Structure prediction request, 390 residues.
Amino acid sequence: MSTLMEPIDSMKPSRELSLWETLDYIAKVLREGAVEECVEVDGGVVRGGLGVYWALRRLGARYAPTGGECRAPLEELGYYHDFAGAPGRVYSSGVDLLVRGLPTPMVMLRSYSRGGLRVWAKLEWFNPFSLSVKDKAAYYIVEGLRASGGVGGRVLGDASSSNFGVALAGVSAYYGARAKVYLPANAEDFGRIIPRLMGASVVETDVESTVRLLPRVIRDSSRGEFVHANQFMNDRNFEAHLRYTAKEIDYQARVAGLKLSGVAGSIGTSGHMAAVNFYFKSRMGPGFPVILAQPTGEESIPGIRRAETGMIWLSLIAQGYSLYDVSLEESLEAVMRVARVDGLAVSPSGGAALAALERHLEEQGIEGDVVVVVPDTGFKYLALISKALK
Ligand code: E1O
Prediction:
């Protein structure tokens, strides 16, 4: 007997399960690499198997099993269909490019590969709006707002170290909304200028970190000035990276025949790396190495901060990762090493992830294929990089 499948888009859930109610189902689906339960659909409405339905929907599968044997491997459920691409790389909009342009490319780094280890950089600057990993969070958050009442004519506001503000401004412009971006004192020039170019308003402050801006953002949004996108708490940030960044790495490892033996990255909201951690701990087992970089002590590395400053998904969902303190100097040394051997200019946060990986390798070697998420390009951090060259 075979399994009957129906498109998830054709089903309406009888109620919504939150991300938190769905996590165990997501973990099970990833662990098994298959679904072993049917979604019960009655007149187009999902009556039973809501957990499986929401897990598959959140992971971006196209079909759900609805009858027969009720067992199907993920591939047969259109699980990787998100990455089918666009013929000729021709797109109807920047948003279309952002979504159907995925996966972002992965490049082997000669500067970090050695012996039985190959290190792959996943280049998130190939996202079109902010040229950074933050496009995915902004897009997914705005999609959520569009689904619950629309965004046209509205103002979408948030605090950002720079990249998320640009991404929010770009996606908002496309959907006829306006962004309002609150920046800390150490924001980058591009973070002050590009959102304005995209029609956003920018509030420049002398507050020293993005999280410390939140009380003001929450106060202004509760006065009804704007809708708070809330990259630090909105679960759509985490979900975007579960469905995209993490699943992309999974997909890319499969098609390239990699022996995936670890993933490294850096943390700001923790959206992307908490999702990567949850995904691969579920899929590969709790011992799968996930290596995270945080800035040492009081040092500032653009876009990232220390775990103890509070990151919802990292503290509540992610477990068993290895966290390394990385200095700005070490980050910039890593940026230089990649630039001089591979000819690629990665961001300081990408350098931090590589420095954390290097530290991990000194403590316990890894063989096989390790993916390092590079959130951004070095082209945006000229002042910092030119100082490092002196
Ligand atoms: C890494 C990250 N590298 C760069 C960021 S501070 C939040 C955010 C912003 O407002 N920047 O732009 O947030 P997540 O942990 O997924 O990514 C860390 C250059 C960044 O800009 C995040």
Q: What stands out?
A: Residues 132-134, 160-164, 210, 266-273, 302-304, 347, 349, 375-376 surround E1O (CB under 6 Å). The two ends are 69 Å apart (CA to CA). The chain is about 40% helix and 20% strand.
